[in-house]
Design brief:
α9 packs across α10. β2, α3 and β3 form a beta-alpha-beta unit. The chain contains 13 helices and eight strands. By secondary structure, the protein is an alpha/beta fold. The protein has an eight-stranded mixed β-sheet, sandwiched between helices. It is found in: Cytoplasm.
């Protein structure tokens, strides 16, 4: 599917579930013009969630599950993993001909395809920075997902960040790294700001500097093409302040803690399957 076709698409998207990840991904897609709010049909259980969508994404429609699936061209499943079988069984007769996109962590393609009754399924692991156009997503397709389907999903994800097509066996690792990763970085930003306050900076300035430092460091890695270790060494002059700080980080196991966090999240993703 071409970019021009995507810009003019009238595909209807049914979004089952309206929590944080759906808000981030769909909100980013609407902002980028991949889909118009009027072509989004929401299936959300609570009044407060419906109210959030109406206030923040005016124009979206609401429907019950069966009606939404019947009307949609693409159905995005944005519910907890253990809710997937309930939802898909409830709308069982209506999955035929639909492109099914699941963002539920840990639910394998085999289960999704079995519940849908066909293999036109794409499994996605996005992350919440999709809302500000800086998402990092990965996806894999079922055996009946067409090149057009994969292009559509990739284009939607790329409108809100970067996207990579992967083998399903890698999906748990993606969940541990980029899916859960923003939370790790938020902790680091908060900790950096706390360190700045402890060293004598006012809170607002410490937070501003910590946030921009993380953004700038990420862009240096992305745009320079250099290995993070090279960039680190370029900052750490002999006997200077940075090498003293790096020694403290190593002594406190920061590197090992980050590796362990990714592995723990990936392992939990496997358990959810």
């Amino acid at each position: 599917m071409t970019e021009q076709t995507l810009e003019k698409t009238q595909f209807k998207w049914a979004i089952v579930g309206g929590g944080q990840m759906a808000r981030a991904l769909v909100g980013g897609m609407i902002k980028a013009g991949v889909v118009s709010a009027s072509n989004v049909i929401l299936v959300v259980p609570s009044e407060s969630t419906r109210r959030w969508w109406d206030e923040n994404q005016p124009g979206v429609q609401h429907a019950d599950l069966e009606e939404a699936v019947q009307q949609a061209d693409i159905v995005m499943l944005a519910v907890k993993p253990w809710v997937i079988p309930v939802v898909m069984n409830q709308a069982g007769p209506f999955w035929s001909g639909k492109l099914v996109v699941s963002i539920a962590a840990g639910v394998p393609l085999s289960k999704l395809c079995d519940l849908a009754g066909h293999g036109r399924v794409v499994r996605v692991m996005p992350n919440t920075p999709c809302l500000v156009g800086s998402g990092a997503s990965a996806f894999c397709g079922g055996d009946e997902a067409t090149d057009e389907d994969r292009t559509l999903v990739a284009s939607a994800l790329e409108a809100v960040g970067i996207a990579a097509e992967i083998d399903e066996v890698q999906m748990d690792a993606v969940t541990g790294l980029s899916g859960s990763g923003p939370a790790y970085i938020y902790i680091l930003i908060e900790a950096l700001a706390d360190g700045g306050v402890a060293a004598g900076l006012p809170r607002d300035l410490a937070m501003k500097l910590a946030t921009q430092t993380v953004i700038g460091a990420g862009e240096m890695v992305q745009k320079s093409g250099m290995h993070p270790g090279q960039l680190k060494d370029a900052v750490a002059s002999p006997g200077g302040t940075t090498i003293a700080a790096l020694q403290t980080l190593e002594q406190n196991g920061v590197r090992a803690a980050m590796i362990a966090a990714v592995k723990a999240s990936a392992a939990r993703s496997k358990e959810l399957a």
